[in-house]
Each structure stands twice: as C-alpha cells, then as structure tokens.
Amino acid sequence: MDYGESVQKVLMRKIRKAEQDLMQLKLDYCRFVFGLAQRARVVSGGVTYLVLSVDVDSMVSTEEGAFTRPDLAGVPVDKPDQVESVQLGNDWALEHCNKQSK
Questions:
Q1: Under DSSP, is residue 48 helix (H, G, I), strand (E, B) or coil?
Q2: What is the mean pLDDT of residues 40-55?
Q3: What is the pLDDT of residues 56-98, one digit of tens each?
Q4: Residue closest to 85 by CA, chosen among 95, 77, 73, 93
Q5: Is the dihedral of CA 16, 22, 28, 30 positive or negative?
Q6: Chain-centre distance for alpha carbon 36
Q7: Alpha carbon distances (Å) from 47 to 75, 83, 100
Q8: Which residue blocks in the chain are alpha helix, DSSP H?
C-alpha cells in the first residue's frame, strides 16, 4: 500500500467518526432543546403520535445560531402496532406542551 492510500484510509476513518459524533450531538440537541426523548409523544394535525424516528439531517442551521426542528416519523398512539409510520415533517409539538397551552 502506498502513502496516498494509507492517508486516504486514515482520513476516511476520521470523517466517519466525525459524522457519527455530529449525528449524536444533533440527537442530544433534539433531546435537550426540543424535549424529544426516546418514544416521545407529539401532536401533529390534531393527532397524537409516538415518535419512531428523528431525521437529524433535516435540521438546518438558522441565522440566530440554532437549528430548526427535525422531521419526525411516528405511529398514532391509538395504533402503536401499525406497521407503516407516518411522516410528520417538522410541524409537531410535544404532547405535554400542547396540554399546558389549553
């Protein structure tokens, strides 16, 4: 193996590690800033959903230095065994936040 190939392999390992770290940091941001814990309940379109996935790649940096809310996918709370998840986009609110505003 020549020097160029070995440098490429080292850099690719470092890039993959940095991407994993960034994903974990964005998930931490979602948990602490947006309150999205594992299996959180959110309301979207008047329906309560159980969150199954968080798309951290959908988060965009704002001019204020924050991130936009992530796109979510989930299943209706009254049908937790539903096979197909529903794409909720970023138009959602945590269930407990919604109850407090009433």
A1: strand
A2: 93
A3: 999 999 999 999 999 999 999 988 787 789 999 999 999 875 4
A4: 73
A5: negative
A6: 8
A7: 10, 17, 16
A8: 3-33, 95-100
Which helix (H) or strand (E) covers residue 88, if one does?
strand 86-89
- CA-CA distance, 87 to 52, in Å (whole number)? 10
Question: What's the CA gap between 98 and 102, in Å, rounded?
Answer: 7
Give the SS3 label for residue 66.
coil
Spatial separation of the C-alpha atoms in residues 92 and 98, rounded to whole Å:
10
From CA 63, how far away is CA 70, in angstroms rounded?
17
Q: Is 98 exposed, middle or buried (0-12, 13-18, 19+ CB in 10 A)?
A: middle
Contact 37, 31 (CB under 8 A): yes
Helix %, strand %, coil % for the chain, to 5?
Answer: 40, 25, 35
